[in-house]
Amino acid sequence: MSESSDGKYLAVVGGLLLIIIAALASLWLRERRGRILAENRLVTVQARYEQLQSIMGQVLIRQDEKQLESSDAPTQPAARAGK
Predict the structure, then answer these.
(1) For position 28, what pLDDT does the model report?
(2) Distances (CA, A) of 76 to 65, 66, 70, 71, 83
(3) Rounded Cα gap, residues 27 and 15, in angstroms
(4) Residue 50 has what pLDDT?
(5) Residue 2: strand, helix, or coil
(6) Which residues neighbour 1 within 8 Å (Cβ) at sequence distance 6 or greater?
(7) CA 17, CA 44: separation in Å to the nearest integer?
(8) Distance of alpha carbon 58 from alpha carbon 49, whole angstroms
(9) Taking the model in full, what pTM does it have?
C-alpha cells in the first residue's frame, strides 16, 4: 500500500470510530434520560398510592365509627325504657 492510501484508510477508520462513539454516547444519554423519567414517574405513582392508602384508611375508620354508633343507638333507648 502506498502512503496516500494508508492515510485515507486511517481517515476512514478514524471517521467511522468517531461516528460509532457519537452514536453510543447519544444512545447512552437517551437511555439515561428515559431511566430518570421513569424513576420520577415511579416516585410520583408511589406518592399517589400512599395518599390513596391514607384516604382509604380514613374512610374505613369513619365507616367503622358509624357502624359502632348505629349499633349503639338502638340499645340506648331500650335501656332508658327499662328504667
Answers:
(1) 98
(2) 17, 15, 11, 10, 11
(3) 18
(4) 95
(5) coil
(6) 9
(7) 41
(8) 14
(9) 0.56
Cell numbers at 41, concatenated: 414517574
- What pLDDT score does 66 carry? 82
Phi-psi region of 2 (alpha: psi -120 to 50; beta: other; left: phi over 0): beta
The CA distance from 42 to 72, in Å, is: 45
Backbone angles phi, psi at 31, to 5 degrees: -65, -40
Other Cβ atoms less than 10 A from the Cβ of 81: the count is: 7
Pull the grid cell for residue 11: 481517515
Q: Which three cell numbers stand for residue 57?
A: 384508611
H/E stretch holding 38 reads helix 3-72
Q: Which residues of the chain have pLDDT under 50?
A: 83
Instruction: Please state, in angstroms and rounded to a whole number, the distance separating the CA atoms of residues 74 and 35.
Output: 59
